[in-house]
Amino acid sequence: MAPKDKPIELHGSIWMTVGGENLGGPGRVALLAKIAECGSITQAAKAIKMSYKAAWDAIDNMNNLAGEPLVERLTGGKGGGGTRLTRRGEQLVKNFKLIEREHRCFVDRLSRQAEGIADDFLLLRRIDMKTSARNQFLGKVTQVRQGAVNDEIELEVAGGQKIVAIVTHESTDGLGLHPGADAFALIKSSSIIVVTDDEGARFSARNRLTGTVSRVQPGAVNTEVVVELPGGGTVAAIITNESSNALGLAVGARVTAIFKASSVILGIPA
């Protein structure tokens, strides 16, 4: 399974504070648990890969913040003494494990509800993208044709529509454009030519998107024409008022939006 196809998972950790100061989390509680098991700070620190000094610093900090000792030294005896948890320390380890287990169940429940969150996050990033180009199409690269100087990139967008762009070899490599890659196409509305009857006509422009006029917004000089495409996408064109009147553009009219491959700017999602 490709990394981008793997489901998103949520993870989290829990720690304790006293007056805003860090008392301890999984690492420090693991140290306490090992001290209870080994009866030695040296062995406990080694078991969790912590230096002896760091272990004692953590213990001193926890003892001070807890307001009472969590670890105490044992002196004398055949083994020359050692360390053990106080009753309060034992209680803290026990309760932290209970809290941590409940926290893990809570995070697991959230993770099960997170299906689709990655797609929504990417969608929000795309929505937030700022560009002067009126038309933005997200799709997948379906074909890369290499030329002597430039490459021709074919992008399939919503509704199965195909958009072709001409980019340099350097751009192809730099953007990682290859079949299956996600990419978006940007086309300025002023680069769009609107045609009402293209039956049998030939054009040098590589791209042709056919749809139905959904909005005509006249201005002082120009008119914005929005064409609804199969699959729910739209393409907007800015043409002169004179052209709009001559073409008899109205909502519901079937038209074709034509633009050159060189007018398409390609990018990749962040």
From TrEMBL:
Which keywords does this Swiss-Prot/TrEMBL entry list? Answer: Molybdenum, Repeat, Transport
**What are the residue boundaries of the Mop domain, all occurrences included?**
130-196, 202-268
Q: Does the keyword Phosphoprotein apply?
A: no
Homology family? Belongs to the ModE family.
Question: What is the protein name for this chain?
Answer: LysR family transcriptional regulator
